[in-house]
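Ticket 4471: requesting a sanity check on a complex prediction with S-adenosylmethionine. Repro inputs:
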Amino acid sequence: MIPVLGGAGRLALPDFTPGTVWLVGAGPGDPGLLTLLAAKALADADAVVYDALVDPAILDLANPAARLIDLGKRAGRPSPTQEAINDRLVALAREGLRVLRLKGGDPFVFGRGGEECLALADAGIAFRVVPGITAGIGGMAYAGIPVTHRGMATTATFVTGHDKSGALPDNLDFGVLAALPGALVFYMALGTLDEIARRLVAAGKPPMTPVAIVSSASTAAQTVIESNLARCAEDAARSQPKRPAIIVVGEVVRLRGWIASLQQTGPVQTGCGSKAAQSLCA
Ligand SMILES: C[S@@+](CC[C@H](N)C(=O)[O-])C[C@H]1O[C@@H](n2cnc3c(N)ncnc32)[C@H](O)[C@@H]1O
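Returned structure tokens:
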């Protein structure tokens, strides 16, 4: 049982049973965006298998006795195959460990969480899926951009900006994307931004449509570049935004001018466990 918000109620969270895997979304970076189930999984896990997007501040919250296993895929560097990751999860569970598979954002949003569930099911390993806040919603919120807005954006569309080879996926219909009445949220798209912007304009999206590039959203390193379709590729080339970055195309970006001015953001502090640190975190 863990207390929540000092009220009389208590939450009875489910047991993290030895020999099972919890596939958990860690959110975009701020440890304050972890769910209660994610916090429990971090506290109870015997092994934490994490990907490249998980913020180190979140790993600091893990059970000190847990094995921390980095199986992150990083662009341009040797990375474990998905099959190797699946096999490792199965092997750790078969050792009788409580295995926390921790992924940035939400495991089922461009996170290959579905493939890992299928592999676990195939091996007869019981698992739990704990959703996380995806960067395309939480990251935008920290930048002061609502993903939908009544009268302005009646759809929100998540799109990947690259396929296995790093190129723009060839099954994207830019005529359809350009006609949607809401935000287009591109993941993994810094490398293809130029082509995305050109093809949206060619398909009829006005060149002055606002664009925001939000890097390291919800962390202390968050940056936001505001631009438009006509010049976003040039602006990105000049400013060199860091990865990971989410790119938002749509009128909702204009709301940032009002929302971001008084919005309180910034990640919660961690490392407050020791007496010495408590004075810094007060
Ligand atoms: C492999 S996808 C994983 C998405 C993740 N499962 C999610 O739900 O956010 C990686 C992409 O997510 C986006 N991303 C993840 N975390 C981010 C962050 N903190 N700030 C900006 N973009 C982020 C970037 O577009 C990055 O290239």
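Notes from triage: Residues 274-282 have pLDDT under 50 and may be disordered. Leaving this open until the requester confirms.
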